[in-house]
Amino acid sequence: MGVKNLWSLLTPVAEKMPLWELHGKAIGIDLSGWVCDSENFNQNTSQKNMYLRNLFFRTSNLLLIGAIPIFVLDGEAPLLKYGAIEKRINGNKAPIKTHVVRKRLNSFQKQCELLLNIMGVTCVYSPGEAEQLCAILNKNGIVNGIVTQDSDCFLYGARVVYRNFNASGNGSVDVYSMESIEKKLKIGRNKMIALSLLCGCDYDEKGVKGIGKDTAIKFLQALDDDVVLDRLRHWRSDTVLNSANMDIKSQTNEIKLELKIRNKAIENESFPSEDIIEEFLKVPNYPKVSAKWILPDINAFINFASTKLCWEREYAIDKFLPLLTRWHLLYDDTFQANILMSEIIKKRINKGIKCYEIKWNNYEITSIEPQTAVQRRYPNEVSIYEDMHTTSSKKIKKKVTIHDSNLFDVTNKLQSINISKKPAKSKKINEVKDNIKGPLDRFVMKEKIKDDSLTLSDFECDPVDLNISDIINGIIN
C-alpha cells in the first residue's frame, strides 16, 4: 500500500530499534494496518477474533513500557481511492461505483474502538485516510512517531515512521526518519509525491507506463525538493525542453533522461494529477487530540473478553490487572481505581529495570512494577521495606566482619611462630620439656613425641614463641 516500491527505496536508511525505546513517547497508530495484519496472517487459527486479541496484547505491551498510543481510525475514503477499494473488494468484475462503504473494516473498527476505550486508550477518527491524520499529528508534534505499513504517510507529511511492529520477546520496530531520508537519499516529501505520480500509488496504480523507480529516482535526485512539482507541471510548456527534444542526441545525459520521462508522461493529458497532489498536500480540519491514558475498566474487560475472545474470568483478570495497577501507580492521584497495594513481596529485575513484585488487596494475583512507579504512589511503604532490608543486610555484614577479624587474629598468631628446619641433634627432649608451659601444652607435646616419625630433635623451636595455649584461646575467642 502507498507509493509503489517506496519501501524498498527507503530500506537502506531504516534502523531496527528495541520496543522499550518507545518509553515516554506518544505514538500514533494506523489501526487498519493492525487489523489487516491480523486477518491476513491468522486466517487458519481457531482463536476467535484474532484482530482483537492481537490489538489487546500489542497495546498492553506499549502501555507497560511507558508509551502512550493514540489510535487513528479511517474516516471517509477519498474519491480518488474508490476505484482501488472496489478493485480490492470485488476484483475486476464489478464496475466502479461512485461511493464505496468499507462495511467490514468499519465493523472491525467499531469493535476495536470499544476494546481500546475499555483499556483507557485514545481513539480518533480521521477525516479521510488514517495515515493522513497520523502524519499530521506527527508533523505537528502531537505524537513522536507513527506506526503504519503504508508509505503514503511520508507524502502526507510524517517525519518518523515505525514499521514492522513486533511485540514478540523484547519487541522491535524498524525506524524510518525523514531527516535521514533527506540527508542520505536526497529525497524529500515533494519528490515522493512526484515519485507517486511517475511510478503509481493508491490513487493511480499505473503511474507512467515504462518508467520504473530507478529511472525516476535518478532524475528526481538531481532536483531541489521545493521545485520538483512545478517542474512536472511545466513539462508541456517548457520551451527549453521542447527545443532540446528536437535534437536529443546532442543533449547531456541529464537532459536525455528528463526528456525520456517527460515524453512518456505527457502522453497522459491529465499528467500530473493535481487531484493527487492536492490530496497529499492539503491540511484538513481534524479533531483536537491529546496524548493521555485514562482509567482502564477491568469489569467491562471481563465481560468483553468473555463474549468476544472466549476467555475465562481468571485469565482475563490475569492479563488485564497489570494495566490497572500500572495506571494506578502512575496516574491515580485520587484513588479512582479502587485498588491498594497490600505488600511488597520482593525485588525483581524485569528487562533490565529494577522492579518490585507487588501483592494487591483486591486480587490474589501479583504484578511486577517498576520501583520508581511504586515509590511515587507508596513512598512510606517503600521506605519501610528498604529500611528493613537494609538493616538485615547490615547484620549479615557485621557477622561476616567479626568472622574475618577472628581469622585475621589467628593468622597473625600463627605467623608469629618461629619454626625453621635445622639438624640441632644435640638438643635434648628433656630440655625442651622444661620450657613448655601449662598442662595442655605438655599433653599436646606428649602426644606428638609418641610418634617415632616426629621428634623434637628434628626442629629448632623458640619456646617463648611456641605458646599453644595462647593460640587455642585466640581461636576460641
Strand order of the largest sheet: 1-7-6-5-2-3-4
Report on the biggest sheet.
Answer: 7 strands, mixed
> What structural class do the secondary elements suggest?
alpha/beta
- Low-pLDDT ranges: 400-405, 419-429, 452-466
End-to-end C-alpha gap = 82 Å
Task: Let me know the average pLDDT.
Answer: 83
Net shape? elongated
Radius of gyration using CA atoms only: 39 Å
User: How big a fraction of the residues is strand?
Assistant: 5-15%
Count the beta strands. Answer: 12
What is the number of helical segments per DSSP (H or I, 4+ residues)? 21
| Helicity, as a percent range | 40-55%
Describe this structure in words.
The protein is of the alpha/beta class and 477 residues long. Helix content is 49%, strand content 13%. It has helices spanning 6-10, 31-41, 50-64, 82-90, 103-119, 130-139, 152-155, 178-185, 189-199, 213-220, 228-233, 239-246, 253-265, 274-281, 298-309, 313-331, 371-377, 379-415, 429-434, 439-449, 468-476, and strands at residues 15-18, 26-30, 68-73, 122-125, 145-147, 160-166, 172-177, 341-350, 353-360, 366-370, 419-421, 459-461. Helix 2 packs across helix 3 (50-64), helix 9 packs antiparallel against helix 10 and helix 16 (313-331) packs across helix 17. The longest helix has 37 residues, at 379-415. The protein is elongated, with a radius of gyration of 39 Å.
